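One such shown below:

_____
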Amino acid sequence: MRKTLRAVGAASLTAGLVVVGAGAASAHVTVTPDTTEAGAYALLTFGVPHGCGDSPTTTVSIQVPEQVVTVTPTVNPGWDVEKVMEDLAEPVDDGHGGQYTERVAEVVYTARTPLPDGYRDALVLSLKLPDAAGETLVFPTVQECAEGESAWVQVPADGEDGHDLELPAPLFTLTAAEGDGPDDAAEPVADGSGSDGSEDAAAGASGDAVSAGAAAGPAPALTWTALVLAAAGLVLGALGFVRSRPRA
């Protein structure tokens, strides 16, 4: 008979105890979200290694954090999937004019063919992340095997490295949504004259334009005079050359 995670007991989480059957699995059950942005819709991929020791995996039960109300499990061809519901103490607005009176407390995947040693699989859940940046979501998971089970329910204490735990629970921390930080747009710098500096900037731009126009404008009169004198010199030089040629 399948045990639910609630049967494993809250004591496993608070006291750091674990339930292990025929030996711990050599690789962790992990969760990889496609986004950790608070309030976003996310796909959570649970990586499932082979079973307890060398024993093949038969069932994976994923407990859903209380902050999450609805979950849509992805259908996996090699597994049957079941949602375990739980009544809510108070109804929750569903955002569409209705209310939720129960939540998905657990998602259970049962292998149609036990997952053997040397192989792994991925189970995907779709859900809306809580709008609580900085909060850590924990998904205690029990991996049942043909012989024994591995309860991935250990949560690191403050200051403890989760990698030091034998059977750590899959978890991740929510991050702030993009655009929640202070406005990075540059503010005009006041110059103390009551102006925000935009008039000075406009005046400077206008002055630059005038200078550019002057540079591209008609040449001064002195330049034209020099050109005329140069042309006259060429004409006189040509005439002198013609007169100096010996006659045949």
About this structure: The chain is about 20% helix and 30% strand.
